[in-house]
């Protein structure tokens, strides 16, 4: 009973903060890492899914991020935020995974890729042949497909920058670190991503009313 | 009046604009720029509606279950990762193959540098061929057993597939490693089949240990629909042929790889 109480207390103490869990893990308490995994898995999954666009890859990214996190935990600066740190590892691995996927798809669909090259690598080319019709516009499934295609047409860096900035609210410096790029270049990557998405999706999305435009500042 | 550029509006919307106050001021006075921003926001709002699947309340625990067996006792020491029993076995196998290749190399006539490079590539590929062939064999047997599972009694409410599920979990980790290696080696055809196999293994590994006959049928149909057993057999057969070939010429080897990539 006393032992059980001690165990509960110990788990509670671990849950108190990531820093304590990291310290305990480094001291050899492997179960302390479980707290970190259980606490941050959902957030890392959300990022990974948005970056890779599919559940299968997202799950792989999550597992790999925590495995790498564990292996590199000795390099983790105690003052840093574990959540942000593992997030960065996940983003880096997701970029690698996206690159692999693109290569794989390019090999599998060589003739289509060749055609795309001939047309120029403009995401607009992916949708020009599908002019929006009233029927299509009413189909949210079709819009979803267009959005997924538009996201897939972004480069790895553009998609990473967009996901991390727009959806995850990460700072430009943090994104720049993942992209191994400068702040200005990262800002430009965000612009490019939004520009491309807008060009591709504008024909499929209705504009908001003028009245709603009055309260645009966010 | 000078209107805002698209870049300025995007920067404003994404919260990275340097002159935020000036842009706000301009927007308050300019209907045209507000309209432009509204169009931009409509696109972003549509993108915000893209759903992210909920991995479930137990997801954290599931991730832990997957990675826990692969963690070393203490983090931070890279060599400890290779001390895990599973990796030790795999590493031992690979080491044995490398030693064999080295010994064979010592007793064969040395060629020029170009030939040595080709030989190294050949050895690397043989190692992959042997290990993957074995892995595909195990996967095929597990999938056949799962496909043949059926309730003993029509009234039976649940079928125990926990053995297949555990095997799928084990195979999943190896599969991931081999797929990544195949990708690095430029063997896209093999990587593609391993990728498909991984999805099936993932489904089985994530299913419950005891399933209803309907759930079992759904899993079996999924296996059948993907044609994964056939694909695994074809690739495994090809790997066996490559393995059996005493000394395949590198040129032939590359051409086989290209042929499979095409397929």
> Greatest interface and its residue counts?
A-B, 66 and 58 residues
Largest sheet of chain A: none
What amount of the residues of chain B lies in strands?
under 5%
For the termini of chain A, the CA-CA separation is 54 Å
Q: Could you state the order of secondary-structure elements of chain B as H and E?
A: HHHHHHHEHHEHHH
Order of helices and strands of chain A: HHHHHHHHHHHHH
**Class inferred from helices and paired strands of chain B:** mainly alpha
Instruction: List how many beta strands of chain A DSSP finds.
Output: 0
Helix content of chain A: over 70%
Tag the structure with descriptive keywords.
heterodimer; A: 218 residues; mainly alpha; B: 263 residues; 2 strands; 2% strand
Topology:
The complex is a heterodimer of chains A (218) and B (263).
Chain A: H1 2-16, H2 18-26, H3 30-52, H4 55-71, H5 82-108, H6 110-119, H7 124-127, H8 134-138, H9 140-152, H10 156-167, H11 172-179, H12 183-201, H13 210-213
Helix pairs in contact in A: 1-2, 2-3, 3-4, 3-5, 4-5, 5-11, 9-12, 10-11, 10-12, 11-12
Chain B: H1 6-13, H2 20-29, H3 31-48, H4 59-67, H5 78-81, H6 85-107, H7 113-148, E1 159-160, H8 162-184, H9 188-206, E2 210-211, H10 213-226, H11 228-244, H12 250-262
Antiparallel strand pairs in B: 1-2
Task: Describe it.
The complex is a heterodimer of chains A (218) and B (263). With 218 residues, chain A is an all-alpha fold. Chain A has helices at 2-16, 18-26, 30-52, 55-71, 82-108, 110-119, 124-127, 134-138, 140-152, 156-167, 172-179, 183-201, 210-213. Helix content of chain B is 74%, strand content 2%. In chain B, helix 1 crosses helix 3 (31-48), helix 7 packs antiparallel against helix 11 and helix 9 crosses helix 11. The interface between A and B is large, with 66 and 58 residues.
């Amino acid at each position: 009973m006393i032992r059980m109480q001690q165990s509960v207390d110990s788990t509670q103490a671990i849950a108190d903060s990531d820093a304590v869990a990291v310290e305990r893990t480094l001291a050899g308490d492997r179960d302390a890492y479980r707290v970190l995994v259980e606490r941050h898995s959902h957030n890392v999954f959300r990022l990974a899914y948005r970056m890779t666009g599919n559940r299968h890859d997202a799950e792989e990214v999550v597992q790999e991020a925590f495995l790498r996190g564990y292996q590199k935990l000795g390099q983790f600066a105690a003052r840093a935020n574990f959540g942000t740190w593992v997030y960065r590892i996940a983003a880096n691995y997701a970029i690698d995974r996206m690159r692999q996927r693109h290569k794989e798809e390019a090999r599998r669909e060589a003739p289509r890729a060749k055609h795309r090259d001939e047309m120029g690598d403009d995401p607009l080319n992916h949708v020009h042949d599908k002019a929006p019709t009233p029927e299509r516009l009413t189909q949210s499934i079709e819009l979803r497909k267009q959005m997924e295609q538009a996201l897939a047409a972004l480069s790895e860096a553009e998609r990473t920058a967009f996901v991390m900035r727009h959806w995850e609210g990460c700072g430009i410096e943090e994104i720049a670190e993942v992209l191994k790029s400068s702040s200005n270049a990262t800002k430009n990557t965000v612009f490019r991503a939004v520009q491309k998405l807008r060009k591709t999706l504008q024909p499929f999305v209705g504009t908001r009313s003028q009245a709603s435009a009055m309260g645009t500042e966010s | 009046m000078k209107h805002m550029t698209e870049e300025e509006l995007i920067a404003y919307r994404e919260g990275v604009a340097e002159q935020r106050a000036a842009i706000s001021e301009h927007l308050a006075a300019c209907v045209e720029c507000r309209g432009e921003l509204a169009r931009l926001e409509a696109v972003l709002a549509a993108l915000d509606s893209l759903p992210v699947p909920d991995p479930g309340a137990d997801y954290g625990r599931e991730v832990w279950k997957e990675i826990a067996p692969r963690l070393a006792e203490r983090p931070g020491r890279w060599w400890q990762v290779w001390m895990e029993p599973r990796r030790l076995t795999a590493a031992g196998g690979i080491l044995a193959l490398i030693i064999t290749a080295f010994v064979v190399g010592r007793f064969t006539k040395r060629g020029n540098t170009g030939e040595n490079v080709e030989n190294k590539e050949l050895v690397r590929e043989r190692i992959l061929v042997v290990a993957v062939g074995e892995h595909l064999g195990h996967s095929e047997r597990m999938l056949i057993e799962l496909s043949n599972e059926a309730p003993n009694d029509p009234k039976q409410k649940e079928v125990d597939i926990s053995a297949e599920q555990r095997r799928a979990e084990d195979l999943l980790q190896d599969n991931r490693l081999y797929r990544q290696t195949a990708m690095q080696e430029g063997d896209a055809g093999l990587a593609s089949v391993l990728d498909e196999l991984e999805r099936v293994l993932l489904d089985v590994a994530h299913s419950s240990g005891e399933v209803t006959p309907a759930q079992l049928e759904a899993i079996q149909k999924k296996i059948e629909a993907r044609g994964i057993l056939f694909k695994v057999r074809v690739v495994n057969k090809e790997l066996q042929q490559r393995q059996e070939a005493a000394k395949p010429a590198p040129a032939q080897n590359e051409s086989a790889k290209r042929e499979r990539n095409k397929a």
